[in-house]
Design goal:
It is a single chain. 42% of the residues lie in helices and 19% in strands.
Amino acid sequence: MRIVIVVCTHNQPDNMVATLASVGRLTVTSSVACSFTVVNNAAANMCSSELEAHVKTLPTSVLHEPTPGLSIARNTGVSQIDADYVIFTDDDVTVPADWLARYAAAFRRYPDAVFFGSDVVPVFADADASWARALSRSAGSCFARFRVGARDRKIDTQTNPRFYPFGANMAFRLDMLRQFRFDESLGRQPDGLVLSGEETKLIGEMVAAGHRGYLIADNPVNHCIAPSRQTLEYVRRYYYGQGWLQASIAVRTQGWTMKADRVLSPVVAYLFRQAQTVAGNLPGKNLRIWIERQHGHFSGRTAVFRDLPRT
C-alpha cells in the first residue's frame, strides 16, 4: 500500500517545525510505503533538505504552488503525487506516532471507501483554561474541532454533512481526487476572507455520486491555535466568511428564502451588534463568544445582499 502525507503551508515556519517533528516520529510498518510532501503555497522558499532535518523516517519532497489559496495548493499536491491513498493534515497540527498505522488499518478495513477522517482536538497555546474551554464549546467549528465518537461511522447519502471530516485530519483514495477536485473558490483566501467548505463540498459531491467514506474512531490530531486566533475578533471574522459564503450560494438559487434573508440579515446583524455592547459587561464567556459568532455570520450575509440591485 502506497500512502503520501500532504501538508500545504503558507508562512507558518514556527508551527511547521512541530508538525514536521511529529511526522518524523510516525511508526511505519513494512507493509506500507509512505512518503511526505509539503506544498509550499506562495510562501518563502524551502527545500527538501530543510524538511529532512526534521523528517528523517520518510522520503520527503517539496512542491511549489505560487498562486495563493489552500484549495489550489491541495489540487497541486494531488496532481503531482503518486500513491494509493493521500492523507492531509495542516501546518499547525501535530500527529501521534500511530496516526499513519491507524489510517492504513482503516484503508484495509474498508476497501470500498473513498474518503476517511478522524478527530481534531484544538489546543489553545498559552490560553487561560476557562477561555479555551469557552472557545472550544461555543465556536468549535472555527477551530476545526471534530469528534467521531467511540466507534467508526459510515458516511453516505443518509449522513448529515456536519459529520463530514475536516481538512486537518482527512484521507482519500487518490484516484477519486483525480475525479473530484477541491473547489478553488473556497478554502482560505489570500485576501484573508475565511471561506471554508471546500472539504464539505468535495465530499458531498463524492457521496452524491454514490461513494461512501468512514470516520475512524480514536485517531486524533492536535490542532494548535495560536494566540492571534484566540480572540473575539477572529471568531467574528471566521463566521463572517461562513455567512458570506452561505449568502453567496443563496443568491445563485434566487429562491424566496433568499429574498427574506436579504431583508432579515441586516436587522439581525444590527441586533447582535447592539448585544455586543451589553455582553461586554457580562461575565459569561460562552455568551460573549456566541454573540460575536452570530454578529459575524449575519454581517457576512448582509455584505453579500447589500450590493445586489433592488428588485
